[in-house]
Amino acid sequence: AEYAISPDGSEIVWSQPEEPTRLISRNTLIHLHLKTRRTRVTDLGDMWLGSPAYSHDGTRLVVLATPTSAPSQHTRLMLVEPKSGKARRLAPSWPRSVGTYGSANPVWRADDQAILFCAEDAGRQPLWSLPLEAEQPEPLVEGGHVMAFATSADGATMAYTRASIDHPARLHVRVPRHAEPRRLDRCNAFLDRITLGQWQSRTLPGWNGEPVQAFVCFPPGYDKRKKYPLLHDIHGGPHAAHLDTWHYRWNIQEFAAQGYVVAAVNYHGSSGFDEAFLGSIDGDLGHRELADTEAVTDALIREGVVDPKRLYAAGGSYGGFMVAWMNGHTDRYRAYVCHAGVYNWLSQFGDDGYLWLNHELGVWPWEDLARYQSQSPHAHAASFKTPTLVIHGELDYRVPYYEGLEYYNTLRAKGIAARLVVFPDENHWILKPQNSRLWYQEFFAWLRRF
Question: Does the predicted TM-score (pTM) go above 0.85?
Fold first, then answer.
């Protein structure tokens, strides 16, 4: 899928992994001349390459490059001259990653003097413009989450989608002579009749007093005189983030509508911040993330927003790891929901991303088994006390379903209230509409029970 066609149609370039059977592999760019069928290679080193894009005159291209040596380094935007093979990083001192998981969608400006792309910044994803010689980009569209965009051939008109915690993606167009962008779509009009919760982005002192950004969403009709139950929505990754967007599987408005104050914390290791923050948890999983989560809990209790006797937490993937980790490190939460969560890093070696694990945990298991396993929730099972709903897709290869079975069986063996829900026809994400409906029903019923 990572390919581009030159403007004159003479050449195709694509990103070629050295070992296609591995999820993580260094890539090269293969240039195929369609008439002669000859190929040449551009090698940018130990990088995963994606989203190549030719300039309009066909003399240059840009490509996203992410170091394969560690999952917690920023994606770079590289400028490549195909004929000479020379390449350089654009805006190397900009303290942000260019896109997350390939979502940058880089394109050339009409005059070939700048690159347009999407990239996260502290919980939001603006559309950026980066002149080729500039030290950092400038935002073109701010607020919310911009994902798809396109420009007219002359560059005078731009169309883009923008979502927010308040609404799904909307289609906008912007023409220079108009002061404000104009919304084109009329989708999801039913939302105009629904009262959503008010929300805010906050920055609070987290682990070691370092600033941590979080979204807090209040129930519709929120009354400041009352104290509400707190529900933490813990994101996966870990090198991902909560964004000001409309999530189609873990929707915080849906959670808030059940009467919870919802906290979505961008803990240490989250994307959208500088590289030091992104890599701060490597080799020491769980501790900083828990400290950040607990700091937000403490702040909301101090402010009189939430009831300290009604605290809950839920998470998927690495977020599922986190609620299992929390179960072994605190007993002040009344119930957890663990979706597709890592429970045992040793058995997790059976996943499709096992080459990440020595970077994430700082060591291979055969090098230092004690250090490796100390970062697993299962190593702290003696302290488990909190009831947990365990959800897993049987076709999950990122976090194989036996991780959920191990956690569930451990809880049952210890006599802790637990429930297991397995979707035999789903993978790491619950995608089918009726399954999603059942997922929410199980989720809310479990929390109500406690």
Answer: yes
